[in-house]
Amino acid sequence: MREEHRIQRALTEPWLDLPYAKELEAIDRLLTDEPTIGRLAAQDLTSKRRDRGRRGMTGDEVIRALVLKQMNQYSYTVLHFLLHDSQTTRAFMGYGLGDQPPSRSALASNIKRIRPETFQEINRVLIRVAKDHDLEKGRKVRVDTTAVDCNIHPPIESDQLRDVVRVLLRLMGQAKTLVGNDLVIVFADRSLRAKRRSLGAWTAKTKVERKRQYRDLLKVTQEVMDSARRVSKQLGGWSPPDPMDAARAAAIQGEIDRIMPLAERLCDTTTRRVIKGQKVPSTEKVLSIFEEHTDVIVKDNRHTHYGHKICLTGGQSSMILDCRVLDGNPCDSTLVAQAIETQKQTYGRPPRQIAFDGGFASRDNLAKAKKLGVKDVMFSKRRGLEVSDMVKSTWVYRRLRDFRAGIEGCISFLKRGFGLDRCTWRSFRSFRAYVHASVVSFNLLILARHLLS
């Protein structure tokens, strides 16, 4: 039976007199003093039958394991090892001498069950804690955007077509093994030919040769797709006596059916762009058959990211007061009003001063911010706006401009120290959860450092 939290904490080893251990001890006190955080996480973990099964990890334990993972960018294998081996790690988790840490798979499955909405609620609790300790009042904030990459390779058509062939052949092989002698599943293994054509498209020295390689690669892909359609239809009509076999067949069929529309669109855009020489809008392209939610994010007309754009609002304490995962690649100038409205909902009033990057600047946004009750609005690039229209003096403008630069450091710390440069979790729901988990871990560390200073 899973518990929401441990009723009595086990006796643990004493904390080491080292900076890292002191930070973990401060985070430990924060989580212990705020049991609401563990309860919020436990709501996503608790199954319908609470009176059966093993005890499982509590909500508090899952949050602690997540903080350790994100703060140090541990893999689940390394985290599992340290829960057995490290005195400080075990003390932070609350494990005594006789406690057995959860397995690697249990750590992964429990952490991934926490919803992104839950992480947002936890972050609101941390903001309230900062307000109670007089560390963050929300009177002076700074806003900026950045891009977080998905865990995919660059979306080159030849590689993606090869991925389609490889994955569909693997699924059909699993189906053939599963059905045994009940069905006759026949397909040709074209993986080697697809590999050769993909490499040939890479190394082609002329456009004519490149098109020839792509034509054959498309032909191979279409052949494998036709076989996959036939196998999916066969699995749909198969009724095995074992319910587990039926569930596996349904899972294989569902994965084939998920990939097929993406593969068809990929073949169409490849034909149009490579064979016919047409321009294809980025919104019509398939960037990945594994992470189909991926957006194309172009920053400063120089760097292209394949992931999602996020909007961050930071405070004077360096805590992240708001984080939004955006759909597509909206212009920064469309995000001003929502950023201010979110702060009004959080603190019950708008911030007195707010600093934006130059991409947010426009006369319309300045008017909206003033109308929402912000006294001083600073855009790092004025874009024709007068300083007197934005703030009350040049001195205030310079101070806010210097203050805004601090959000760049926070973003850099999030990316280097908390893995926000690249999301390693699959699916859009997990992407959002990963981003908010990094923000929660970051805020816990910032709070701990403030309390230690």
Core attributes:
453 residues, alpha/beta, Nucleotidyltransferase, domain 5, 3 domains, six-stranded mixed beta sheet, 17 helices, 6 strands, flat
The number of helical segments is 17
Could you tell me how far the N terminus lies from the C terminus, measured between alpha carbons in angstroms? 41 Å
Q: Which topology of the largest domain does CATH recognise? A: Nucleotidyltransferase, domain 5
Mean pLDDT: 91
| Shape type | flat
The structural domain count equals: 3
Q: In the CATH hierarchy, what is the class of the largest domain?
A: Alpha Beta
* Class inferred from helices and paired strands: alpha/beta
Residue fraction in strands: 5-15%
| Radius of gyration computed on alpha carbons | 26 Å
Topology, number of strands: 6
Main sheet specs:
6 strands, mixed
